[in-house]
Specification:
Helix content is 32%, strand content 27%. The protein is built from seven helices and ten strands. Strands 6-7-8-3-9-10 form a six-stranded mixed beta sheet, sandwiched between helices. Helix 3 packs parallel to helix 5 and helix 5 packs parallel to helix 6. The longest helix is centred in the C-terminal third of the chain and has 16 residues. It binds adenosine-5'-diphosphate (ADP) and magnesium ion (MG).
C-alpha cells in the first residue's frame, strides 16, 4: 500500500511556543483518519501544515512520496483541500463561490454541475444566486464543502465541519464525505463529535501538540 502522507519529526514553534512537537505520522492512501484532542492542542495547526497554510519549523512532509516543498502551492492545493472550522465564503453570492474552482482551473463555469452539487447536499437550485449573507450556518458549511469537492481532491482535510450542525444537516454532510471517501479520497477529519469519535476506524489524538499512540476504535 502506498502512503499519501509521511510526516517525519514535525515541529512547529511560534514565538517560543511549541504548537506541534515531534509529529511522526504515516497516512495510507485512501485512509479515513479521525483526529481529536482538547481545544488548543494543535489540531487545526496540523491540518494547516498538511494544507501548506503553515510551514513547520523543522521536520519533513512527503506527499505521494515527494517533498511537500517541491510542489507548486497552487497545484498542491488542488490535490489537498482544506475545509475551515468556520465556513469561509467570499464574494456576494453562492455562484461566486462555486465558480471559483472553475476559475482557478481556467474552465468555463458549468451551472448544471454546480446545481447537481447543491442538490447532492439537499440545497435547492435557486440557492445558486442567493446572497451568502442570507445563508444559515449549515447552508454555508455545505456550500463550502461542495466548493471543495466540485473537482475532487486526493485529500480532504476537514476541520470540525459538522460542529453546530443540526442532526439532519450533519447526516447529509456525512453522506457527502462518505461517498467521496468510497471513491478513494483520503480523509483526515478533526472532530469533537462523540459519535464521529466512536465510529472512527482510525483515531488519533493530539495533546499539547503531541500525537498520542493510535487507538483503533474498531
Ligand atoms: N498563527 C498562530 N500564531 C500563534 N499561535 C497560534 C497560531 N495558530 C494557532 N496558535 C496557537 O496554537 C495552539 C493550537 O491551536 P489550534 O491548532 O487552533 O488548536 P485546536 O485546533 O486543537 O483547538 C493554540 O494555543 C493557539 O492559540
Ligand atoms: Mg481547531
Amino acid at each position: 500500500m502506498t502512503n499519501i502522507f509521511e510526516l517525519n519529526q514535525i515541529n512547529l514553534t511560534i514565538d517560543d511556543k511549541p504548537l506541534l512537537q515531534d509529529i511522526n505520522l504515516t497516512v495510507p492512501t485512501g485512509a479515513y483518519l479521525t483526529l481529536t484532542g482538547p481545544s488548543g492542542s494543535g489540531k487545526s495547526t496540523l491540518l494547516r501544515v498538511l494544507a501548506t497554510l503553515m510551514t513547520p519549523t523543522s521536520g519533513t512532509i512527503a506527499f505521494n512520496g515527494k517533498p511537500q516543498a517541491d510542489y507548486l502551492k497552487t497545484d498542491y492545493r488542488k490535490l489537498v483541500s482544506y475545509c475551515f472550522q468556520q465556513p469561509s465564503l467570499f464574494g456576494d453570492t453562492v455562484r461566486d463561490n462555486l465558480a471559483f474552482p472553475f476559475d482557478i482551473r481556467k474552465i468555463d463555469f458549468d451551472s448544471a454541475q454546480a446545481i447537481t452539487a447543491l442538490q447532492s447536499v439537499d440545497l435547492p437550485e435557486t440557492m445558486l444566486d442567493a446572497k451568502i449573507t442570507s445563508l444559515s450556518g449549515g447552508e454555508k458549511q455545505r456550500v463550502a464543502l461542495i466548493r471543495n469537492l466540485l473537482f475532487p481532491p486526493q485529500v480532504l482535510l476537514l476541520d470540525e465541519v459538522t460542529t453546530g450542525l443540526d442532526p439532519d444537516t450533519k447526516a447529509i454532510v456525512h453522506q457527502l464525505i462518505e461517498s467521496h471517501h468510497h471513491q478513494g479520497i483520503t480523509v483526515i477529519a478533526v472532530t469533537h463529535d462523540e459519535t464521529e469519535v466512536a465510529q472512527a476506524s482510525t483515531l488519533l489524538r493530539l495533546v499539547a501538540g503531541r500525537l498520542e499512540e493510535t487507538a483503533n476504535a474498531k
